[in-house]
Amino acid sequence: MDLSIHDLVKRFGKLTALDHVSLEVAQGSFVCFLGPSGCGKTTLLRVIAGLEEADGGSIRLGDSDLSAIPARNRNFGVVFQSYSLFPNMTAARNVGYGLECRRWDRPRMQNRIKEMLDLVHLADQAEKLPSQMSGGQQQRIALARALAPDPSALLLDEPLSALDAKVREELRIEIRAVQKRLGITTIMVTHDQEEALAMADLIVVMSKGRIEQIGTPQQLYREPATAFVADFIGRMNVLPLDPGAAAGSYSFGGTALEVATTVNGSKGPSAPAALGIRPEAVALHEAGASGENILAANVRSVSFLGNITRIELAPENRPEIAIVAELHGTAAVPETGARLAVSLPADALRVLS
Ligand SMILES: Nc1ncnc2c1ncn2[C@@H]1O[C@H](COP(=O)(O)OP(=O)(O)OP(=O)(O)O)[C@@H](O)[C@H]1O
Ligand SMILES: [Mg+2]
Q1: Is residue 229 included in any domain, yes or no?
Q2: What residue ranges in 75-182 does DSSP mark as E strands?
């Protein structure tokens, strides 16, 4: 069943934590809420879970309106950042907790616990207490516990953020594999863009209680609609537009720039404010080169980073706006202080609002 969120508003006193949020989560999909600290991700997840009451708007699961249904009857599996296992219960009893509450009979419960422990590859840890397990193991038990009662959706709030980098990457793959295998609708909150890009079918980028953009990882990377999204997902050079240009034409630092594509093939935002270009799309030529979308610039710094070299450039007409270029592998690397021609290919420029 699809989850349908319409016009949600949540206030804490004077603060509007959710400001008219609407979105659709398709059955079986993996959706990430992504955004900086305080943007409302956890609040949105808690309202969906029924742990927080909205001040307006509606949430529907298939045909049923969830507003009047208390959290325990919504049948969602929830996993939080901190390992919320019961410290005095073994892994197996933790996994079975929701089943005991639902009064499953003993043999059925034992089968299900075993099935869930196998699913997260921890069958050999069944009799351990949480304090005897690593953080990654505890989060896998928390996942197994959330999945045991066969919930209609899984809600995860930064489940990996307390783990070290290597375990985090392993668990990303494992969670995604479990989610696909069960086909369970999953919403995961994260502030880690790489995690969202790696795991999600659909990413909901949030800022200040509002949705900035919803799209697949590829869409958000290739076609960010706003400077905020462009900057939050990957690296993007943001070039403020010169004021006073005619509609549909763009200029930066006095140089007219051609733009081949616009957001989602439409005319682009009605109030364009900047052009964006990814560092890997910026091309460098010898000073004096001529052609479309070429600016003169000086090399401010050169950082060798192994697989890439990052070059920071100061455009001659707008030296305060840095343009970053990334060169791969064996490309010729300029010297700091060199004067160059920087080309901003028309098909790589994005119009940002
Ligand atoms: N119970 C509460 N009472 C008052 N204000 C709250 C409450 N819960 C959240 N807030 C406020 O609502 C805003 C959104 O909080 P929320 O926890 O949803 O952010 P978040 O995006 O999950 O951030 P983080 O990445 O830091 O977890 C914040 O400004 C926060 O201070
Ligand atoms: Mg949070």
Answers
A1: no
A2: 76-79, 153-157
- 202 plus 314 within the same structural domain: no
Residues 216, 80 share a domain: yes
Task: For residues 299 and 208, state if they share a domain.
Answer: no
Question: Do 210 and 248 belong to one domain?
Answer: no
| Cβ < 6 A, ligand 1 pocket | 12, 15, 17, 35, 37-43, 191
Nearest to 149 by CA among 112, 179, 118: 112
pLDDT on residue 225: 86
Identify whether residues 43 and 124 lie together within a single domain: yes
SS3 at position 204: strand
- Say whether pLDDT at 267 is over 60: no
Distance 84 CA to ligand 1 centre (A): 19
Burial environment of residue 111 by CB neighbours within 10 A (0 to 12, 13 to 18, 19 or more): exposed
Report how far residue 245's alpha carbon sits from residue 199's, in angstroms, rounded to the nearest whole number.
Answer: 41
Q: What is the CATH number of the domain that holds 14?
A: 3.40.50.300
Contacts of 239 (CB under 8 A, 6+ apart): 252, 274, 275, 276, 277, 318, 321, 323, 344
Task: Return the ∠ at Cα 337 (arms to 332 and 338), rounded to 5°.
Answer: 45
Domain count, the chain: 2
Q: Identify which of 37, 43, 48, 205 to mutate to test ligand 1's pocket (most ligand atoms within 8 A of the CB).
A: 43
The predicted-structure confidence for 268-314, as pLDDT tens digits, reads as follows 566 788 999 999 999 999 999 988 999 999 999 999 988 899 999 99
- For residue 40, which atom of ligand 1 is closest to its CA? 18
**Residue 225 and residue 353: Cα distance in Å, rounded?**
7
Report how far ligand 1's centroid is from the alpha carbon of 80 (Å): 14
Residue 268 confidence (pLDDT): 59
The domain containing residue 244 runs over which residues? Answer: 235-352
Nearby residues for ligand 2 (ion, Cβ within 5 Å): 42
